[in-house]
Amino acid sequence: MVSRPFESFSRLTKCTPWLQGSLTAAALTISVLPLNRLSDRIGRKPILLLGLSVALMSILWVGLAKTFWSLAASQCFRGLFDGNISVSKNVIGEMTDYTNRSRAFSLFLILSTCGRTLGLLIGGDLQKRSSSLFGIEFFKQHPYFLPCLVVAIILAIAFIVILFFLEETAPRRVLGRQSLQEESSQTYSPPLRELAVYPVIIAVANYTGLVFLNQCENALLPLVFAMPVEIGGLGFNPAQIGYILGAYSLLTTFFLAFFFGPIIRFFGERRFFIFCVFSQLLMWVMLPIIHQYARHFGIGAHVWVGLAVMSLPHVCVEMGFGCIYTYLIGAAPNRRSMSSTIAVAYVISSIFGIMVPTMATSLFSYSIQHNILGGYAVYAVISFWTVLATLVAFCLPFDARPVWERERS
């Protein structure tokens, strides 16, 4: 059945979140490490340009897709050849030092959040206008091609900017004239067994824990907001859900832009990261409380106040990534193993990207269907993992600087 063309494009778009979250993550699990290690040899810039080219072709492919398998293939294609998700972190790590690295990653997160918001606006607005605006049969048959084309143009501009203005940061390409022996010792990708050391294991474990909590939030919040109050949700309509999630994104951008730097300078990466992880407990405690209020008193001021309180853990989980990226770079045994450390973390996070959304939503459904802990068992399980992730966060070292930067100072 799935191989037949969809009767309408709206049926196809219902599969998009699953495809983006699972198929791309599955392909990334295979490709992240090889692409990172290839960037050690040929440079970061070629891999970034390859990733943008693949993303451009993939998004146009999505706009033209009319069958399930065509859309699925586009996402697998992007996941297999787009290494930007991790190589870009290598570039930031190589362009900065411990004095400005956290701030640089916060800027990266700001731009990522703005990009997601812009993408939603482009996709929603242009999809509605494309067929009526042009009145062309092609746009009626492919109503998502226009927003995909606009995104492709943005990617093409980014390609040109990187091609002409980004300087290579890979150590192999910036060493200059050195002896072959010295170059080889500093730049070739190290064997993965070099990464089986305590600092790397702890940093990757904390990154994985944060990804787990973030994936749970991304999977459950839209579901809880949309489900009827009678079966564990809040009964919001799509517009309300969009406003809530959009407000969370705007608040995250605001805090990253104006408060992340001062907070890190005052508290330090370790203490603030522990707080960010522990704050997620607030979300999983607040959700059943908000639901009980909605069930007994309807959607009123108390529910909106509760949702406002939930914005704190949402903001903190995003800022936590700014901290843990610094620890991933700092955990690398040496400069030449930095990209492999980041790649290993992304491989594990991609695996979680495949499993966690399905696990979280299935547990939500099972809890309600069997009335386990009043239908709130899913929140109890995630709260337990939040406590474990907080305990693991205490194992992070007090100094997030890489070994080579500590030796230099």
Automatic annotation (TrEMBL):
The keyword Cytoplasm does not apply. Residues 1-401 form the Major facilitator superfamily (MFS) profile domain. It comes from Crepidotus variabilis. The chain crosses the membrane at residues 47-64, 104-123, 144-166, 195-213, 220-236, 242-260, 272-291, 303-330, 342-364, 376-398. GO terms for molecular function: transmembrane transporter activity. This is Major facilitator superfamily domain-containing protein. GO terms for cellular component: membrane. It is found in: Membrane. Its main location: membrane. Pfam families: MFS_1. InterPro entries: MFS, MFS_dom, MFS_trans_sf. Keywords: Membrane, Transmembrane, Transmembrane helix, Transport. It is a multi-pass membrane protein.
